[in-house]
Amino acid sequence: MITRLGVALLLGMTLPISMTARALTLESPVEQVQLVELFTSHGCSSCPPADRWLGKLESHPGLWQKLIPMAFHVDYWDYLGWQDRFASPAYSQRQRQYRQSGAIRSVYTPGFVVNGKEWRGWFRHPKLELGEAKKVGRLTLDVQPGVAVKAEFSPQAGIDQQGLEANLVILGFDLQSEIGAGENRGRTLSEHFVVLSHGRSRVQTHAGQWSLPWPEFSRSGSKRLAVVLWLSHPESGEPVQAVGGWLPG
Known about the structure:
It contains 3 helices and 14 strands. By secondary structure, the chain is mainly beta. The protein has one domain. The strands form 4 sheets. It has a 4-stranded antiparallel sheet, with no helix packed on it. A hairpin with a 3-residue loop joins strand 7 and strand 8. The chain is globular, with a radius of gyration of 18 Å. The two termini are 30 Å apart. 38% of the residues are buried.
């Protein structure tokens, strides 16, 4: 039963039995948690420095409470002779949708999108300035790995939750990729915040609750995992609020 203003989300999960672990609760602040998206590829020789920079955000004091980094691997460089094992046509399409909505000027790697807007500052002075976050509401995520996830969003007055889209992502960390061909041939890449799966579902607020299957995913050698849920406007991709944190086990 929902006892406060908001919507509830019930997410079904299918994870390996070994992932069954203790439950945890993740909660965002009322202020907007900003998404830092990197579009990257194993086939792009200029991407490893951006990947390393993104990985350093793991030590950022505002991780999970002020910002959430994510690395979406695109597939449009695979033709150079090396298939990126993390790449997905859906992630390439996500970047193209940002271009279609006007959020970014062109499709390229490495490409950064911060809170739904293109950020080229990394190329000039790679220091992320988040600025003051607006108050949007609290997003809470109750996770029981291997069983289910329940989330609730309590928006601030004036925040319209109609027509929002729920996005669920699993992130992988401490990944090592040996590249056998293409522009990064012979290199071993160390990667963090890698998107291993991304599920989306339109939020049906009139029903109060809705379900979103958590797709099966491969750990791909990841030593640690994190879960992220964010609500966004489906047409523009602009995020409203996000919550994330480490998965146990």
